[in-house]
Amino acid sequence: MKAKGLLYKIYMLCTRPVKGWFYMFVFLLNLVSNYVVTSEDNMPFTYFSVFFLSAFIAYIESAIYVVLTKKSIKQLYVVLITLLHSILIACEYFLLFRFNSFLNQGVVNIIGETNREEALSFFNTYLPPIQILIVLALLAVLLAIIYGLSTLFSKTRYTIPAFLFSLTGLGLALYGGYGFLRYRDGMSIPQHTTLTRLGYSIYQLKQKNSDIVLLRDVCKNVEASAKSSDFPTIIVIIGESHSVYHTSLYGYEKATNPLLAERVKDGSMVVFDNAVTLHDATSASMAADFSLNAQGVDFATTPLFPACFKAAGYRTMMYDNQYSIGSGISFLSDKELSDILFDYRNTREYQYDGDMVDDIEMSDSPTLYIIHLQGQHFDYEADYPQSFGKFRASDYDKKYNEDQRATIAHYDNATLYNDYVIDKIIKKFEHTNCCVFYFPDHGEEIYELRNYMGHGNAESSPDLNYQIRIPLLVWLSPTFTAGHPSLRQRLEEAKHYPICADDIGHTLLDVAGISTSAFSPSRSFVNVNYDKNRHRIVLHSIDYDEYQDRSNM
Questions:
Q1: pLDDT at 523
Q2: d(C-alpha 85, C-alpha 54), whole Å
Q3: What CA–CA distances, in Å, run from 69 to 65, 77, 276?
Q4: What integer is the mean pLDDT of 442-455?
């Protein structure tokens, strides 16, 4: 009898959290938030996992509620839990309906590496005040419905099923935790709840800081030397959100590149038509572009190409209109690493890219310039002065609605201004011994495929080319061409080669004649040993070349 009485007490203690309205309230909140993952993974196990993990998380939240004894503390806890889940639900469904995504590693990385200006631009573009009010109203209605259902369910006998559901969820969580501890594989953790995904993503973000610490030592100790006394000035212009499909150099019907078209016409600029980026977001793309590693592997243990230039005797200068020191979690925002890589970084922020070009210092010594533009980053209307407002909504097909036509016009005007900025940089250096490389971090969708503009979800796009395929341009000064006639020919031969943006660092070292153990001739597209058969793996796992073959069938 004593054993039976003890078991009964244990049962009553363990089931106490699932009794009453609060357990059902937080269970439904979890369920609403967590089910967004089924939009991408609709396998039966996913639905099973989401349901039972939601029950387990609700059990923990409800257990905390039960042990709180003071009424005011209980009330505060209810408010905080409700606020937390409301924010998560709003974020999950905003990302789902606007970007066909949800809170995951990529989104958390972008948030962590976003500066204030980018955040304001994002909200101005995607969350105007009226939409925020609508979201708040919908949330209020949802909370009222969930509260009503939870009070209704609390009057039924659901204690035993709820407890068993929670136990099953505990089993799933333990299984996932074991997989993580044994294999250190994030995908072994159940990715089917917002809280576990968010927790793991924050953990990964902290790991980035550790990577930066390793990278400092790698870049500080890199060894490199110049193979000849010829030190050409190397200028790397990195654009932002530049779509090949809105670039007249690549056949777009609107004249968005009138100035650069003249450079192509006089033979000083080469246009590459088969270049892609590894990623669809700025932070990951910039890491891949700067690193000399392959396909995003071993980022923390491979030098960044500016470190090699600096070690070889080049002065290194970076003018950045997006990243600044100390803003966000990015290798470009880390002061110590920046000091290792660059002799100079600008500290001023500019409304327009052209204003930054005016401040670029002309150096008499061999110099690597990296110029990171704001480019065509949303919101597009803020990316160009009014004097470049050539295109208007009325210029576009009526298959787009009025707002879409206005957005497309703003994007094309920003692209027209970007053409002016690149040409302005070239004019600044055209009488020197230099070559200029231009490419953006990624592309952009502008309503071509669906009711969507932006980037960051290429994997779920009907055609990832719009976000992954990028323009790549190389301009040579007359002095540089005269001293390197064979290089001009090799560039012309390579303009149809399959190129990935993470190969550009190796190409820059080759053009500058820098010798270092990190250099790979097979990854320089001006080198006779360039590997044209290397498959390009984009978005971590997609073989772009096979993807293209399938889409062209």
A1: 97
A2: 12
A3: 8, 11, 59
A4: 92
If we measure between CA atoms, which residue out of 82, 84, 79, 85 comes closest to residue 33? 85
Q: What is the DSSP letter of 362?
A: P
pLDDT at position 196 over 50: yes
Omega of the bond prior to 379 within 30 degrees of 0, cis? yes
Angle at 334 between CA 328 and CA 336, to 5 degrees: 160
Alpha carbon distance 245, 251 (integer Å): 8
User: pLDDT tens digits, residue range 131-145?
Assistant: 888 888 999 999 999
Count Cα neighbours of 1 within 13 Å in the Cβ-side half-sphere.
Answer: 0
CA gap 237, 375 in Å, rounded: 10
What pTM value is reported for the model?
Answer: 0.78
For the cut 60, the answer to whether the pLDDT of residue 27 exceeds it is: yes
Burial of 184 by CB count in 10 Å (0-12 exposed, 13-18 middle, 19+ buried)? exposed
Q: pLDDT digit string (tens) for 529-548?
A: 999 999 999 988 899 999 88
- pLDDT-based confidence at residue 186 (cuts at 50, 70, 90): very low
CA 223/CA 219 separation, integer angstroms: 9
36, 94, 46, 210: which is closest to 456 by C-alpha? 94
Strand (E) or helix (H) holding 230: none
Residue 4 — φ and ψ, nearest 5°?
Answer: -65, -40
Long-range contacts of 62-69 (CB under 8 A, 24+ apart): 62/17, 62/18, 62/20, 62/22, 62/23, 62/26, 63/17, 65/17, 65/22, 66/16, 66/17
The pLDDT of residue 232: 94
Question: Please, are residues 258 and 422 in contact by the beta-carbon 8 Å criterion?
Answer: no
